[in-house]
Amino acid sequence: MTTTLDGELKVSASTNFNAELHARPSIYFSGPSLVEHVAFMPASTQTQGIVEIQQKNATSDDGIRVQIEHHTEFTTVTRVTPLKLPVQAWPQETRFHKDFGVTTTPSQLICRISVLVLDAPPEDLSPTLRQYGFGDTAASAIGGSAAQVCSDFLVGPGESSRILLFNAELNAYRLGRMVRRICEIETYRSMALLGLPEARRLAPVLKYFDEKLTDLTNRHLNTPADEHKRLLDEISTLSAHVISATAETRNRFGATAAYATIVEERIAELRESHVPGFQRFGVFVARRFKPAVRTCAATALRLEQLSHATMHLLDLLQTRIQLEIEYQNTVQIRAMAERAAVQLKIQRAVEGFSIIAISYYLLSLLKMTAETLDHAGVHLGPFTMLVSIPVVVAAVALTVFRVRHALR
């Protein structure tokens, strides 16, 4: 191991990644046994303090084995109790809450599964299933016909779903992994179905959102400019509600999709084959499980589409408002240009009048000067006044034009 900080961090990360490969070991066992599996979701993030068991993986003197696993959202407790033949009836199930200190308050019980593992299956399953109280049952040969699994998926008196597993050729390791897959199917199926109540809760809300969006879209086509602000406020409010609903359910629906994928993988790992006269175990699960998953996926997609639609409508209205503002600005600029042109014409007219007025005053001054000189004995002829008129007018006009050019 390197002594540098970077090297220590790299080794530590590698160790954690390698440990993750062994984070979910199965309980290996053989012979008739009762496997009890409980999954529950803590109400707080302090998952480690919910289960009060002295050891994570414990084996007692009578062969009972217990295993606890902490997952991202939930915790599972698995207990394997060896049984003595013959097993005439379903064994008495363990009181997890009392015997193991597992409290459902403030935690939420997700599922409880009891798997009764027996020897090779009988030739006729029906009498055995009736003996253990099973009703309409699904059954499959699993593991390449090395075992058979049966269940009616009903919750019994102990709040557990009962599964009957007949082991024909599985050794302890394969049997432990097979039981683990069966428990995981039920656990992840229950976790995935947590999104279904959210989907049902959102159904009327989404219907209202759709109707509101349709109404706002129709109003957007015919709303006059003086009511655009009110329409913009309503669309913004609808968009905020849709985004809020999406944020509240995004994690749950995302988890539903992830758990559903795990369920499908675990069913495929069973390597099922048909048992004459019975519906397959995986088919029974999938046919009743996939519609709920599709409902959650459809609800999530509907929320996403509503969010895009409201944002698109909001952009359209904002674009329309912006175009109207630009049009108003264009009209105002055009009016200002017209006023400037009129003012320019007036200014030019005034400049023309000013040339005439200044020239008139200058010529009047020259006339008074000529009359004064005439009284003084200096006589100026009429030709002098005629010449001075164009000269004065030209000088005044040139002066005015030069001043206007300088101002420009």
Main attributes?
408 residues; alpha+beta; 3 domains; 8 helices; 9 strands; 59% helix; DUF3422 domain-containing protein
Query: What gyration radius follows from the Cα positions, in whole Å?
Result: 46 Å
Beta-strand segment tally: 9
As a percent range, the share of helical residues equals: 55-70%
Main sheet, how many strands, which sense, barrel? 9 strands, mixed
Side-by-side strand order of the widest sheet: 2-3-4-1-5-8-7-6-9
Structural class, judged by helices and strands?
alpha+beta
- How much strand content do the residues show? 5-15%
**Average pLDDT reading:** 82
> How many domains, in number, for the residues?
3
Low-confidence segments, given as residue ranges, are: 1-5, 45-56
Order of helix and strand elements from N to C terminus: HEEEEHEHEEEHHHEHH
- Quaternary: single chain
Report, as a whole number of angstroms, the end-to-end distance. Answer: 82 Å
Concise structural overview:
With 408 residues, the chain is α+β, with helices and mostly antiparallel strands. It has eight helices and nine strands.
Can you describe this structure?
- It is a single chain.
- This protein has 408 residues and is an alpha+beta fold.
- It has helices at residues 5-20, 96-99, 125-131, 172-192, 195-222, 228-269, 281-375, 382-407; strands spanning 33-41, 57-59, 65-70, 75-82, 108-118, 138-142, 147-155, 161-167, 273-274.
- A nine-stranded mixed sheet has the order 2-3-4-1-5-8-7-6-9, with helices on one face.
- The longest helix is centred in the C-terminal third of the chain and has 95 residues, at 281-375.
- The chain is rod-shaped, with a radius of gyration of 46 Å.
- InterPro entries: DUF3422 (IPR021830).
- This is DUF3422 domain-containing protein.
- The chain crosses the membrane at residues 346-363, 383-403.
